[in-house]
Design goal:
Layout: E1 10-15, E2 18-24, E3 30-35, E4 43-45, E5 63-69, E6 72-80, E7 86-92, E8 95-98, E9 114-117, E10 120-124, E11 131-137, E12 140-143, E13 160-163, E14 166-170, E15 176-180, E16 185-187, E17 198-201, E18 205-211, E19 216-223, E20 226-234, E21 241-246, E22 255-260, E23 268-274, E24 278-286
Antiparallel strand pairs: 1-2, 2-3, 3-4, 5-6, 6-7, 7-8, 9-10, 10-11, 11-12, 13-14, 14-15, 15-16, 17-18, 18-19, 19-20, 21-22, 22-23, 23-24
InterPro entries: Fungal_lectin
Organism: Aspergillus felis
GO molecular function: carbohydrate binding
Length: about 290
Amino acid sequence: MATVLHDTAIAASNNGSNINVYAQQRDGSVVEYTYRPDWSPDWEKSDFLPVAAGEAKLFTPLAANVERKATGPERHVYFLDKENRVRDKVLKDNGWVQGGLYSLTVDAAPFSRLNMYYPKLYYQTAEEYDIKCVEKDTNGWTTSSFAVAQWDEVLLGTGIAALADSVFHQNDTLAIEQKGGVTGQSFSLTASPHTSLSVLGDDTYLSILYTTSQSWLQELRITDSGSTTTKITTVAPRSDIAAVRIKSPDDDPDVIQVFCQDGRGDGISAYRYIAASGWKLKTQNLCA
């Protein structure tokens, strides 16, 4: 039986209150776990592998999203194949099938990370090491020659995160840069080199999740009243992180869940933020 790869990439997506988490297994396949709080308090492992062994390179980056369609929500997973080409799989009635990126021939750098903020999928290019994106519309995927961030501004192998109007990456001083939005800005965090990044927020807050050289998973939270940095947990030295924002149906603050390998075996652990109580361990050894 395949088990989760140590230092696996992690991806997460949500569809309402449901959360999907993806990780690579030691045989190279990618596994999916789903949490449906209205059905069960437990995570459910899918019987179907989004990415079969041999389709993705070992230690591939991962990204995921749920696309809303007239026929219902459609799950997508993104990865690099053994030639470092960006690929996607889509869940259909007959299982996971090849998505449209298969025929687009998008070459990423061997050390590229991936980030999906619909409709844009971001990656680091193979030639110039810029950060670029491919974009989804009703006619399928299109490439862009525009560099979101240029090579001389970007750390090779940088983590990548995005919001609707901006992209976040690490530069060669290890600061976190934001490109786009009203203005670009830099965040002088104590981030580890090549930290994984997750960024969430709205017009009331910005949450930047990253790791430090001391193997802490930390959050920088910025609001109108100022900024605070919180140590969430220690993690494995090269742990990836992925986070989802769960919007409240009323006016309550957002709930955030972040997924990481926290050194308690190779499984994925989930930590949850609730405004009233802060960060707490939610689930341990998911995907073990």
